[in-house]
Amino acid sequence: xxxxxxxxxxxxxxxxxxxxxxxxRKALTAGVLVAQLVAMAAGLAQPAFNxxxxxxxxxxxxxxYVQRMGALMIGVVLIGxxxxxxxxxxxxxxxxxxxxDLRLAVYRRAGELSTADxxxxxxxxxxxxxSADTGVVGRTVFAFxxxxxxxxxxxxxxxxLSLRQSVQLAPVIxxxxxxLGVVVGLYVARVTPLAGRLQRAVDAVNRVLREQLTGTRIxxxxxxxxxxSDRFGIANTELTVLARRVGALQxxxxxxxxxxxxVAVVATNVIGAxxxxxxxxxxxGLTAFSGYLMQIVSGVSLFVALAAVLPRAEASAIRLRxxxxxxxxxxxxxxxxxxxxxxxDVDFRSVDVRYAGAEQLTLSDVTLRxxxxxVTAVIGGTSSGKSxxxxxxxxxxxxxxxEVALGDRPIADWPLTAVRSEVAYVGxxxxxxxxxxxxxxRLAYDDATDDLVWKALRVTKMADTVADRGGLDxxxxxxxxxxxxxxxxxxAIARALLHRPRVMVxxxxxxxxxxxxxSQVFTSVRAHLPRTTFLIAAQQxxxxxxxxxxxxxxxxxxxxxxxxRDLLERCSVYRExxxxxxxxxxx
Length: 587
Description:
This is Putative ABC transporter permease/ATP-binding protein. This protein has helices spanning 2-8, 13-23, 26-58, 63-112, 115-121, 123-146, 151-165, 170-214, 216-221, 225-277, 283-324, 386-391, 416-422, 437-441, 450-459, 463-468, 485-498, 515-528, 564-570, 572-580; strands spanning 346-353, 363-369, 375-380, 401-406, 409-410, 423-426, 435-436, 475-476, 503-507, 533-538, 549-554, 557-562.
């Protein structure tokens, strides 16, 4: 991933995002172009009107001519105003549409990323990319379509028309253009690297804030609010410093442009006065040239406005491209030829797993054949690799070496969709989303009838609780926070039951239940799915003692496997775990 990201930084990512989106909105784009052309024509006509009014009206004393030309000029101005408003409206619609499309695309791609790639990007960064970065790109597209698109035509047109008034004043235009180009170039060169750092600093603030909001109760329990405040202060200070540096450069930009413009106007008037005295230029011609000069400066100022947002927009576009261009597994078809029938077994064959950037293997040479149609348990301490091992089965992760077989067929040969049609996974974090009980459970099976949903709830001993809360339409808050930890786990297991899996992976899915409830729920689940292969992970002995096969993990290695009684006799690691839990363990 890193190499591809470095390569993308050498390209104009903003163009690759904006051009296809703009070209797909042909009607709005045509509206912008037509409206901009009308507005530009109206703007370029005004200095010429001024010149005629001065030379043929004011100097000649022809009041009627001044009134006629003045009325015509007002009409042209009104036409230009309406055209400008239309251009802004069309440009705003294009920009809003692009932002919406990008948000949807990033959201969908986030759901397709592998677990490793998603964790490498980080939740905080994904939130920033989906909200802030898409907004920055949208605003930049708006600036381009509604304003900056007209800048080249206005500038070139004003240069040509000004030279028609007086070629002798051309050096003023040349020097002004060079100075403005130098100022804008220096600004872009200084701001571009800061823009990328600024977006990463926003990520850091979001990450720290999210961690602290999630862990508020823990921080209060251990009275570590000051530590959390210090961490946020460091991240916030870095963001503030970078924002001030970018702001300081932006503050210097506009005054520099105005200074150059004002000096150019003074130079025009000084040189123009000599030309008028020598009859090489009329007063109206000088007035028109000054008007065109200001339009040239205005056109360059539009470039400056775009330059002010372009570095940050490019940084945001690169970050969006990192997500959108990330390789994702091909889900493939749900059905495959020669799909194994009957009971499906799981076999780990000399599996190694190393996370990106890690020096040590998380799993090393793991060989484990799960009991087909039975219960295989994995037990071990914290960071022993249990979750990593179980994540290989639904292909949330892929092994670095060795292979995992599903039904005697390497899991890498299975289409991803086919794997996940066979495997149900209940992780440590029970992903309940805001909605209702029914909407959460039907994530596993859209067409599940109410009877099927109630049956799954009865199996997991949640039917009475849900009925007391108003039935299947009972509200579920974000993360299921209006349910207890054990209730959330049982809802997650009920959802997995609706999937009707041939392999069920339960990663510490009973940890929040009391021992009696956990035993009842698991017994009921086993009876409901008698031909399903179960692979469970736990830290408590009572959760695994009845399993057909228990594998003991330590530091990513299987140190022994067997029944509960056999492991108590011969495995020191298992015995240590059992002895540590002796006060709560029934011998």
